[in-house]
Amino acid sequence: MTTLDNAERKRIIEELDSTLFVEAGAGTGKTTALVDRVTALLKRGDPVTKMVVITFTRSAAAELRERVRRKVTEAREEAAEGSLEREKLDAAVREIDFAVIQTIDSFALSMLRERPLEAGLPPVIEPVDEVQAELNFDQAWSRWLDDQPDDGEFATAIATAFRLGMVSPLSGLYDTARQLHANYHLVGRHDFKEPGRVTRVTARSIVDAGKWLPAMARFCRLPEGDKLTAALEGFEAIATRLERINPDSEDADWLLANPNIKISQTGGRQADWDEDESGVNACKSIKAHLKDLQDELNNELSDLRRHALGALLEPLKGFVTGYAAERRNAGRAEFHDMLVWAVELLRNDDARLHFQERYEYVLVDEFQDTDPLQVELVRGLTDRAGVGHPTPGALFVVGDPKQSIYRFRHADLPTLNRLRSEPHVGLTRITQNFRSNTSLVGWVNHVFARWMDGAGSRYQADYVALESDDTPPEIVPPFGVHLAGEAFPEPRIETVRRTEMDDLARTAREIGEGAWMVRGGDGLRRSGYGDLCVLIPRRTALPLLERALDEHKVPYTTDGNSLIFVTEDVRDLLSALTAIDDPTDQVAVVSALRSPAYACSDVDLWLWARSGRGFNYLDAAPDALAEPGSVANAFRSLKTLHNERLVTGPGALIERFVRERRLREIALVGGRAEERWSRIQFLAEMARRLTDAGRPSLRDFVLWAHQQAERDVRAPDAGAGEETDAVRVMTVHAAKGLEFPIVMLTGLNSGLNTRTENALFDHSDAATTQIGVRMGSRPAFFETGGFDALREQEKDAGRMEGVRLMYVAATRAKDHLIVSTYRKDNDRSSPAALVAEFSDDARRLWAAVTPAPDPPGARTPAQRRRVATDNQADTQDDPDGWERRQRVLIALMSTPTMISASTLHDSEAVPREQKTGDEQMELDPWRRGRAASSIGRAVHAVLQDVDLGAPTRAEINSLAAKHARAHNVASYEMEIIDLANATLQAPVMRRAAEAHTNGRAWRESYVSARVGVTGVVLEGYIDLLFEDEDGSLVIIDYKTDRSDDAVEAYEMQLGAYIAAVREATGVEVGEAVLVFSRRASEAIAAGADLEAAQHPVSDLGHAAERAIRLAEERSSARLGRTPTPI
After folding, report:
1. What does the buried/exposed string (b/e) look like for 869-902 if buried means 16 or more CB atoms within 10 Å of the residue's CB?
2. DSSP string for 237-248
3. Which are the contacts of 414, defined by CB distance < 8 A and separation ≥ 6?
4. If 185 and its partner were Cys, which of 340, 605, 715, 1100 is the partner (CB 3.0–4.6 Å)?
5. φ, ψ of residue 885 in degrees (nearest 5)
6. Residue 1117's CB: how many other CB atoms inside 10 A?
7. What would the pLDDT profile of 611-656 be if each residue is shown by its tens digit?
8. Side-chain half-sphere of 1027: how many Cα atoms within 13 Å?
């Protein structure tokens, strides 16, 4: 067959003595190219036993072996009887079962088992799977911590870090240790310890300045109420304390690292000060000297923290390398170990020569997914002359850089590009797509040529256009791309997502009922459910999608083991197990009661709580447990299982719970039984494995399961059911390498995740690897040198991989690609918005898809979403039941619980003004006692009264004087002026001023609204609310403390405002911003960017949901009942 890229494909089978990198676009036949290469070598007479073929998964390896077998068999049949080629292919067919066609880890393990002594390993080597490896690591980590002496190197490093401002040093060490463990081969040769010592000079400089600088206050003509004069008093107190504790001691570091210690000052007016002896205004001179001391202190603290982090990381390095040595000595090999040890084995001359002679040809499929270690292993096998590059013909790789989406498994695009661009490597590109039709390919080229433009970045692949000569037939809907949805003015993204999933589920039902056409055999056929695959970029989109598919009676199965922990079955089972383990976890208990296992209705729960009973089943009175009813029955079951949890293993306990609560029978009734059974069995098996690993309690299992859910772990052996005529739902990663007649891509209306770890590794330089680590929190970050640059680099790489993820998703479709572009109308950056933007000028390449209407008599989406009550009896069939439910609902709605937004602070985030004793002594002098909150109220009052549109200095001064007296802080008038003026200069306040001029800003706005399923009332006063240019609302809350450690608590308060405003007004909240007055003042004094004085809430929906959840919990605790939907 002649193809559009025939010349490039001929190189694959003809240039057998050349090293080739085949860049094969999606659907072009990457694996076919590899099979053709193997067949060409066998035709030439090269023995199959001289080849090693490496692919990405075990299933792919098995499929590849069969494809090679078929291709070689076909070639043998085509060869002339008695010819030399026929003889060679006869031998190949006989030996095909001995061919080394394996995954990279399996191949590495076979090498190690063949030469264990040269690898420094025992004769018996056992692989450890991912789950067991994680359990083993946790145990090793616990042992290591327990073994650290109280006066050892590690304890000293912890103490030093704490002294320098790392509030909870141990809290971040576990995650850092895990990341270092995953890269231990790089960590072992990295020196984290900073050279030399930090010269401590600032404390002595402060002591020296304290002997003369405070005396400069004599130059102030109006010392009463002058901020700088007060600051000099505070400075003198600091200097005195430093001298008392010895400025050259580590105790001085502890004092100066306190975030409440601030040397530089911005207060004081030069007009109120005389010139000093040098002829310079004393106010200016003092500020300059204090700023120099502050800069000196900041630099010194940064150096001290960097040294302290190095001292902390060195013992951590010892742990991860020691643990690696322990595994090596025991012959327990994790996935990463196999690669590290195999690479090290090839550094042994005898072993390398042995394997090079044994394997003359190394062929690698899906090369874009390889990591630097795998590349090094391949190089070691193929560089027979030791010249730094593969021997010609020894290496053949095929892959597509545009489909590199496994950075979380260390796939590294710069490493791949280095090999591809080497002069001894021939690059050939195959571009004809055999999967998709010309219409679909044209859209992919049009969109991704722009979207994948990395502006020359080494972290983005060059876009090479696909080609297709598959002209689709004229049908309706047409073959190709369909965009579903548009920009909605709807203020709540949650509403947009519910609408999206509901509409797409209707389209899925339409496809399943045969309304679309797909290719089948030699012609066309009507579509079925099994033709459709729904792809989601992240698993958080699954719950809404599952609900919509269930409501529309669409059969589906969830593929891809990363989805198991977010499926409803597993969430329900984990809630029940958590409730069994911990009866005080009210959320888990109520979730278990509402799950199918106990099937308590909301009215059941409400009546139980209404009778004054709580939801701790251990506290329930015996007579209550003896009553009939679903709640009492559930409590008896939970109490029995709780009492037996200490003598029954978690695996057996799960099996008993499933049997007694008839979960298998429920799954059979509910559909998709086999898939749901497999999930239950998976959890039971994992519980048994935890027990075998030395973690035998139910508490251990529950904690482990929740960790898996939080970490987005891909669970092994938890596959989908076998239902064939069902929609397949999977993540994009799970769909890699697959194809489907119809693909629906949804969940694109949120930004791609660019979160970075606190340990970063840069492989962009072939000779060295940079490692950056950050620990601690603002303002006391502990960072290795260059961490910030590595973090920005990592974010860029993550964003670019996100584009490639979308490319992989779009190229899974054969006949139809449905892309969801449901989004808010002010969205400009989500994948949905970008797809719509890039498609706008190519309308000929796509068609709009409109969801099919519901069948006659079907409930509306709003009706389907309405929370069911009791048995939903019809008023005619059960009027008494209907009346009873109405009384219940009316009673509930007549007794609302009100929660103030300002009370929704995390308990640990205590405002500094509430601190007492020694903590208060460390505060700046002007912030001790009640003055701090009084100053804050005065500043708020000024901002409430001032003309936002055109504030003048005179007006601010007058209002500050008025409110300072009113709040009994007249001596802090200048500070109030400074803070109010600085707040007004924040960027978001300038936008608010413009809105105020147009009559679209409101101050001290009271808001109150019922939220959540229980109808709890959130109320509060919003400092400033204004309407932005796009019609959305912006919430501003002023904070007059620094409170870096309380930002999360303040976000909870803003989340409550967001939820209440959305519900009360029906208008979208576009932004919610904290404005820190003191940060603004400091930024102005330093000439810095005022953006630092603002803290916008990054995820408005998440903040609102957290606030509602906490409000419901507070309401429940206050009334002695559980949250109950109304």
Report:
1. bbeeeeeeeeeebbeebeebbeebeeeebebebe
2. HHHHHHHHH-TT
3. 458, 459, 763, 764
4. 340
5. -65, -35
6. 12
7. 888 899 998 888 888 888 889 999 999 999 999 888 888 888 988 8
8. 9
Distances (CA, A) of 935 to 320, 543, 920, 941: 51, 47, 16, 10
H-helix or E-strand containing 111? helix 104-114
DSSP structure string for 1071-1125: EEEEEEHHHHHHHHHHT--GGGGEEE-S-HHHHHHHHHHHHHHHHHHHHTS----
Segment 849-907, tens digit of pLDDT: 988 776 655 555 545 444 333 333 344 455 556 555 555 544 444 444 567 776 675 43
Closest CA to 1024 of 1049, 1055, 1046, 1054: 1054
How many CA atoms, within 13 angstroms, populate the side-chain half-sphere of residue 190? 25
Place of tokens 């023995």: 47
Supply the pLDDT for residue 664: 78
Name the token pair of 638. 């939970």
- The answer to whether the CB of 506 falls within 8 A of the CB of 851 is yes
57, 48 Cβ separation under 8 angstroms: no
* Residues 6+ away with beta carbon under 8 Å from 1053: 901, 902, 904, 905, 1020, 1037, 1107
CA 1123 vs CA 726, 902, 1060: distances in Å: 36, 21, 18
Residue 365 CB coordination number (10 Å)? 26
Amino acid type, 1034: V
Q: What is the pLDDT of residue 867?
A: 35
CA-closest candidate to residue 745, choices 519, 918, 915, 504: 504
Question: Which helix or strand (DSSP H or E) is residue 1025 part of?
Answer: strand 1016-1027
**CA angle, residues 755, 759, 765, in degrees to nearest 5:** 100
Buried b / exposed e along 956-982 (16+ C-beta atoms within 10 A): bbebbbebbeebebbebbbbbbbbbbb
Give pLDDT, residue 563.
66
**Full strand arrangement of the beta sheet holding 100-103:** 100-103, 51-55, 361-364, 395-399, 20-24, 426-430
What is d(CA 352, CA 1046) in angstroms, rounded to the nearest whole number? 57
Q: What per-residue confidence (pLDDT) applies to 526?
A: 94
CA dist 1065 and 1045 (Å) reads 32
Is residue 46 within 8 Å of residue 380, measured between CB atoms? no
Q: d(Cα 465, Cα 18) in Å, to the nearest integer?
A: 25
Quick check: 938 pLDDT over 90?
no
CB 378 within 8 A of CB 364: yes
Of 159, 175, 171, 153, give the one whose Cα is nearest residue 257: 159
Distance separating alpha carbons of residues 164 and 741, to the nearest angstrom: 60
Tell me: pLDDT of 1124 over 80.
no
The Cα 332–Cα 125 span in angstroms is 6
CA 1000 to chain centre: 36
In contact, 851 and 503? CB cutoff 8 Å: yes
Residue with tokens 């492989």: 763
